[in-house]
Known about the structure:
By secondary structure, the protein is mostly beta strands.
Amino acid sequence: xxxxxLDRRLFLKxxxxxxxxxxxxxxxxxxxxxxxxxxxxYTYVRTLLTPSQLSYNPxxxxxxxxxxxxxxxxxxxxxxxYLYYAPHDAPGGICLAYGNSLEGPxxxxxxxxxxxxxxQPHYSVSHVSSPHVLWNxxxxxxxxxxxxxxxxTRLARSTDGIHFTYDKVVxxxxxxxxxxxxxxxxxxFRHDLPSRNARYVMVFMLNNTTNHRDIHWGWSPDGxxxxxxxxxxxxxxxxxAVNVGGPHLLHRNNSTYVVYNKDKGSxxxxxxxxxxNDFSRRNHLGVFYNSRAAAPxxxxxxxxxxxxxxxVPYMIYEAGERLAGSIAVARG
Length: 332
């Protein structure tokens, strides 16, 4: 796998001493201990965003962070890093915070939400949520994937990371097997699959009439037009879970992994499965990050996003009970 794949070096800038980087779990400096797959053993540092402290707080909850380094991508920017997040419950709303360090502080963008649940003439839905932003090096744009309703994932595009132009629907329940009720929480990564004529991969959560959630995946030549595997990538039952969700792709030691949250009711940890560079493996490796009983995690960690800053690996994630938590950062 060549250097650009999986966007894992898109935010590298020169040397480790001068370049704070966003990478998909590829740490520039080794950790003292390691999680499965040789990844860093992340430790909670601090809370970055708490709903009660935000000006835009329609529902008292926020989920699904995505952090991106923009200092070497955008000519005009508010900070070195953009952190996207959203409430989930109606009306939701895609939100932005910005800062100069992955450990914070992050400042709330004053005009949130940057994408709302009504965008005429394109859609009018109860809520929009689960923002995942990809720096598309081919288009030199920030591409935002988000859901609303839970049946539909959409794409919007931006040259400044703040003001977006609507593109199209990229995922819906109609593209998956009969009985599918939700297709959401999608993340997209640059990843070549020559045998499928693909340059991008999507991982997402699927629910069906059994009301147990699995991880599914798809592939695309351009990030806009997608083909989806009709079988789960990670089945909830194979890892002893009620539901699995919040997937994120990682790359290490010439192999590809999916990390995801495993829920057993109200709590859960972040797990890891090796899928291989061609997504043919199903090597379930166990716990990637063990959530703490103490606040703010209260026994639940989910929906991670990864980066490195000054050579130090970080994970930014949901901490706390579903729809009652905050956004936190852990250091590897």
